Structures are given as structure tokens and as C-alpha cells.
Amino acid sequence: MITPVLPNYGRFDLAFERGEGPYLFTTGGERYLDFGGGIAVNALGHAHPHLVETLKAQADKLWHVSNLYHIPAQERLAERLVAASFADTVFFCNSGAEAVECAIKMARIYHHANGQPERYRLITVTGAFHGRTLATIAAGGQEKHLTGFGPVVDGFDHVPFDDIDAMKAAIGPETAGILIEPLLGEGGILPNRPDYLRQLRALCDAEGILLVMDEVQTGIGRTGKLFAHEWAGITPDIMAVAKAIGGGFPLGACLATEQAAKGMTAGTHGSTFGGNPLAAAVGNAVLDIVLEDGFLEAVQQRAIVFRQKLARIADDHPEVIEAIRGEGLMLGLKCRVPNTELVAALMAQKLLAVGAGDNVVRFLPPLNIEDAQIDEAIELLDAACHALKDAPDRAGGA
């Protein structure tokens, strides 16, 4: 018999009733250290006082009016994102998939407005993840996401990771742009080299096509810059963000230059809930903190410390951990055991992490994590690795 909640998730047997900073507490009172962050969403931890007070204050005033009217907090949030980025304009939505969907539509209509409607195809990278809508699973191109949902939405060409020659060869008269994650998240915490991203920017300029960045997981400080593409010293034409921008409240955004957004006129796209007063208030509260002087530099320093300590654990447990990947506080352990086993062993130690492709376990702690909490996570990881190593089937027993 089917459950009242659609059984489309493989859930762990855990239920949480409250959170505090980097910790979650189950309905039974057990405390877990959360280094999954709602999959890179809870960028400032749980129940951050500034976010909570902002949401409460806004809830007492106004929840929703729709985008038929001006929303002052939304306009302020857009102005702040524009001021802090390459963009000239912002569209607000509710999720990462919606943000990428907007980016896809924007890239297509840009060429239509320029008299080249035949340019509608986007080149993407094998192993990428861009969302769960019909268009975004087609953009990702992973068979496990596409099976059963055919026919596949047309308009996407896939090339191998970090292969500039394949990227060049894929460009044709129907190409509208390149859609890429600066750091593949679901695909295995694989950073694209800064030089490769610079080559893509130059390639797009030379071919008259658009560079579209998917920063749904990497944006809003996750790698130590506000946006991960900044490490390469380039700017995209269009960028999708979500997850951390709402700090736990559903919010997404599509940022673009004025030129790239020229086709998005009244009636071409919309969202009922996107950027409503509640969401915009919380988004502004997140920026209040992330844009504070020194905040991103502190993220970079925490990331260095965390990575160094992970390296020590990897050296101590080579039978469990093969390599460390990632940037900033978006780090992954490439495993020699099934990553599901390491996730389970960590959970047994009351540390939450998230699996990823290519047999990787992701760590996505709050950006404001403290050194003592990093040390706590390292101790729990060490204990989990010992437990795996000492398991009978790995110790030569069973």
C-alpha cells in the first residue's frame, strides 16, 4: 500500500524536531552534528537568530501578494545581488531547478530576440546535475534521472568533464550557449579548473554564445567567494542560484546581464511565489551576514583548516578514503568503500553527511562553523573510519 507521502525518496529512519547552529535534535532528543546542511541549504546553520527574527517580523506583516505588484524587499534583494555580482537584473523563483529552467529559457530567447531562433541548444557536461524538471534532467543527461520520463527534452549536447576540445567540437549553428557548474556537486565534488573556465568564457565570446553558470550549490559563499566563478576571474552571462540564498527558506534566483536578458520581456516568464515578501525578507537577512566585512575571508580560513584535518584522516585511513576533493566548505571524500557505508557509519557516530556521484561523500557544513565543531566532526569521522576498518568483512573475518 502506498504511503500518504509519495515514496520517491530513500529516507533514513530519522526525524528531527529542532535545530540549533550546526546541530539537529531528533524527536527522541538525540543530537546530530549536521555537515549535510539540507544539501548546502542551511548556510548559516539552523535557527540563526537574525534569520528567525526577520522571518517572524515579516510574518506579522505580509506573507504573499504575487508579482502583480511591486515588492520592496524583493527589489532591495535584487539591487544587492546586482551590486555584489556581474549581473544587471534578477528573476526570483523558489528552487534551483526553477532558476536553471529560467536560465535555459533566457539563453534561448536571447538568440530569438537577436534574429537567430535556430540557436536553442546548450552544451552541458556529462555527470552534471541541474535539477529534476523535464528540461533540467535532460540538461544533466544522466540515465538514472531520465529513465521512464521520455521522450527526452531536446536541446542539450553533452561533452566529457574538463575537455575543451570536445566543447569546441560540440559548438554548431544551433548552439545557444554552455551550461556548466563551476564545481560539480551531485556529480562528485569535481571542481572545474580556473583555466578551463577562462577558456570557456573566451570560447563563448568568440562564438557569440552565452556562458550560463549553475551556482545553485556553489553560490552565496560556499567556496569562500560569493560565487565560485570568481575564483577564475571571469563572469557568466546568466547564472542560476538557490539553496543558500534563502538560508533554509525556499528561494531561487536567475541573475543576468542586461544584454543576456534582453528577450525576457513582460509575459515571457513568471512565478507565483517567487521572491514574495517572506522569501525576500529572509534572502536579505542572509546577505546581511554573508556580505559582512571579513565573512567570506573567514570561510576561506575555516576551509583551509577543515581540509588539512580531513587530509590527516585520509592519511590515517587509506583503506576507506582515496582522496579529498572540492573547494571552500564544499568538500568531498572519494571513497574506497561504498560511499553509502561511510554515510551510514558517520550517522552511527551522530554526524550527518551527504552522498554524491563517483562514490563520494559530501561535507557541507554551515559557513559560520566554529573550529571546535570542525574538530568534533573530525573525531566522529575518525571513529566512523575505524568502525568500517574493523568490521568483520573488512578485517578478514566474515
Architecture blueprint of SSEs:
Blueprint: E1 16-20, E2 23-26, E3 31-34, H1 37-40, H2 49-59, H3 72-83, E4 89-93, H4 96-113, E5 121-125, H5 134-140, H6 143-146, E6 156-159, H7 164-170, E7 175-180, E8 183-184, E9 190-191, H8 194-207, E10 210-214, E11 238-241, E12 252-256, H9 277-290, H10 295-316, E13 321-327, E14 330-335, H11 339-348, E15 351-352, E16 354-356, E17 360-363, H12 371-390
Parallel strand pairs: 3-15, 5-6, 5-7, 7-10, 10-11
Antiparallel strand pairs: 1-2, 2-3, 4-12, 8-9, 11-12, 13-14, 14-17, 16-17
Helix pairs in contact: 2-9, 3-9, 10-12, 11-12
How would you sum up this structure, described in words?
By secondary structure, the protein is of the alpha/beta class. The chain folds into two domains: 16-34 and 294-390, Aspartate Aminotransferase, domain 1, CATH 3.90.1150.10; 49-290, Aspartate Aminotransferase, domain 2, CATH 3.40.640. The protein has twelve helices and 17 strands. It has helices spanning 37-40, 49-59, 72-83, 96-113, 134-140, 143-146, 164-170, 194-207, 277-290, 295-316, 339-348, 371-390, and strands at 16-20, 23-26, 31-34, 89-93, 121-125, 156-159, 175-180, 183-184, 190-191, 210-214, 238-241, 252-256, 321-327, 330-335, 351-352, 354-356, 360-363. The strands form four sheets. It has a seven-stranded mixed beta sheet, with helices on both faces. A hairpin with a 4-residue loop joins strand 2 (23-26) and strand 3 (31-34). The longest helix has 22 residues, at 295-316. It is globular, with a radius of gyration of 21 Å. The chain starts with 15 loop residues before the first strand and ends in an 8-residue tail after the last helix.
